[in-house]
Amino acid sequence: DTAKPQIITGKAKLAGVLGWPVAHSRSPVLHNYWLRRYGVDGAYVPLPVEPDAFVAAVLGLQAAGFRGANVTIPHKEAAFKIADVLDHSAQRAGAVNTLVFEDDGKIHGYSTDGAGFVASMEAAGLNPPKQAQALLLGAGGAARSVAAALQDCGLRVAVTNRTQGRAEELAKALPGLDVVPWNAWEQRLGTFSLLVNTTSLGMEGGPDAAFRPSLAHAGKELVVADIVYVPRITPLLAEAQSAGLHTLGGLGMLLHQARLGFQKWYGVNPEVDAATEAFVQESF
Ligand code: ATR
């Protein structure tokens, strides 16, 4: 019952999100929603930390008895470096978004973004067939974690990026990754069964909020996904919907990537359902 006041006792389990800036993060709303829903004696707080202070902040949280933390922009690579033990997901992503302070003093690092994306697809009933080909727009950190997770599910993955060199760098980190030239991807769309925008194109306040590429060459089975979640329906998703294609917005990835940390810190495997989605959506 979310109307009940949240009680934080002397034994409360503590976690938070390190970012700079961090005020835009939806993670505090989500984790505190789950804490109340599951009656956990705990708290989750925003932690604005400048890059220079990141290591001191992490060691300080650990010294203060925190269970761990999420890490967002610009700290995901620094979190990768500070972790003593890197999960397979973190090694593949080259980044860490979830830190867990274990009882033996070791810091464990995970990257849950890619798995969160895959879980949100599955939850929406949009499981792409194995051997399917996916095309990702972008070659940044988000692209790497989604590409790695899709490859780990058995999909063949290609990336296309405005700056081709970055796409080629990514292909070195993730063997088997194909690179498609940025000026050719719209024409080649017919080869793919999944398109994922991992850039900030289409985001409110982003570099090009009106980003609406042509899907004229898409096959009719194409699933179009966006990791942008503000607005909920990006121009790309609107274009896909008007072409009669299945679409997936970015909110599900945000919710699903959070589950592992919550489970590790607070001991409950939280559910992502319509109520969770509505609660976080209303916080925008
Ligand atoms: P993240 O780690 O969140 O993925 P990032 O590393 O800054 O963030 O990557 C942003 C992605 O959006 C990149 O693929 C970037 O393309 P470049 O590598 O060419 O910079 C892409 N991007 C940002 N603004 C863009 C724009 N106006 N047009 C095309 N791509 C853009």
From TrEMBL:
Lineage: Bacteria, Pseudomonadati, Pseudomonadota, Alphaproteobacteria, Acetobacterales
Name of the protein described by the UniProt record: Shikimate dehydrogenase (NADP(+))
Gene that this sequence comes from: aroE
Binding-site positions, shikimate: 25-27, 72, 97, 113, 229, 257
Superkingdom of origin organism: Bacteria
Uppermost EC category: oxidoreductase
Catalytic activity: shikimate + NADP(+) = 3-dehydroshikimate + NADPH + H(+)
One GO cellular component, as annotated: cytosol
Record-listed E.C. numbers: 1.1.1.25
Entry annotated with the keyword NADP: yes
Residue span, Shikimate dehydrogenase substrate binding N-terminal domain: 17-99
Keywords associated with the record: Amino-acid biosynthesis, Aromatic amino acid biosynthesis, NADP, Oxidoreductase
GO molecular function, one term: NADP binding
Family membership noted in the UniProt record: Belongs to the shikimate dehydrogenase family.
PANTHER family hit by this protein: BIFUNCTIONAL 3-DEHYDROQUINATE DEHYDRATASE_SHIKIMATE DEHYDROGENASE, CHLOROPLASTIC, SHIKIMATE DEHYDROGENASE
Record: residues binding NADP(+): 138-142, 161-166, 227, 250
Organism of this sequence: Acetobacter ascendens
The protein's annotated pathway: Metabolic intermediate biosynthesis; chorismate biosynthesis; chorismate from D-erythrose 4-phosphate and phosphoenolpyruvate: step 4/7
GO BP annotations listed: amino acid biosynthetic process; aromatic amino acid family biosynthetic process; chorismate biosynthetic process; shikimate metabolic process
Task of the protein: Involved in the biosynthesis of the chorismate, which leads to the biosynthesis of aromatic amino acids. Catalyzes the reversible NADPH linked reduction of 3-dehydroshikimate (DHSA) to yield shikimate (SA).
A Pfam short name: Shikimate_DH
Quinate/shikimate 5-dehydrogenase/glutamyl-tRNA reductase domain ranges (all copies): 130-243
Active site: 76
